[in-house]
Each structure stands twice: as C-alpha cells, then as structure tokens.
C-alpha cells in the first residue's frame, strides 16, 4: 500500500533524526498507519490530505507493541535494524 509505505518512510526518517540527535535506538519504534487512522475525513482536497501527513511522537516509560503487549527493546517486529 503506497500510503502505508510513505507513512513508514516518514516515521523512520524522524526516528533516524532523533537517533542522530542522541535518542537511543532502543527507545524508538516507528509505526506506519498510512491511511488507516487519518486525522481528517474525507481527505478530498490537497489541504485536507496534507493534514493527514504527519508524524506523532508518543513518549512512554516502555515501548509497547499493541499486538502483543510489551516488547523488549531490540526485539521489535518487522525490521532487522531494530526499527519497524
């Protein structure tokens, strides 16, 4: 899905920037939602589509995987580089 691929690329770019600025990789878990959780519906115009292109940063005590509960750092699903 193109929207999810773009969403993932955007989230991963932000995670890399955070890592380059001192945030440990184990604390980062980029997640792509693509068009599954838009901020604005319907996204019929370029302006409303632009509102859906975003990266949200959640700060938590621990990384939590919505599908399986808590996920130990370094064991994130979906990527060999520790980023999902």
Report on this structure:
- The chain has about 80 residues and is mainly α.
- It has helices spanning about 1-20, 45-50, and strands at about 65, 70.
- It starts with a helix and ends in a 14-residue tail after the last strand.
- It has two helices and two strands.
- The protein has a two-stranded antiparallel sheet.
Report the structural category: mainly alpha
Indicate the mean pLDDT: 76
Summarize the biggest pleated sheet.
2 strands, antiparallel
What spatial form do the alpha-carbon principal axes imply? elongated
What's the order of the H and E elements?
HHEE
Strand order in the largest sheet:
1-2
Proportion of β residues? under 5%
**Overall helicity:** 25-40%
Number of strands: 2
Uncertain residue ranges: 68-84
Radius of gyration: 14 Å
List the helices and strands and how they pair.
Blueprint lengths: L1 H19 L25 H7 L11 E2 L3 E2 L14
Identify the notable features of this structure and list them briefly:
single chain; 5% strand; 2 strands; 31% helix; 84 residues; two-stranded antiparallel ribbon; elongated; mainly alpha
In short:
By secondary structure, this protein is mostly helical. The chain contains 2 helices and 2 strands; from the N terminus they run ααββ. Helix content is 31%, strand content 5%.
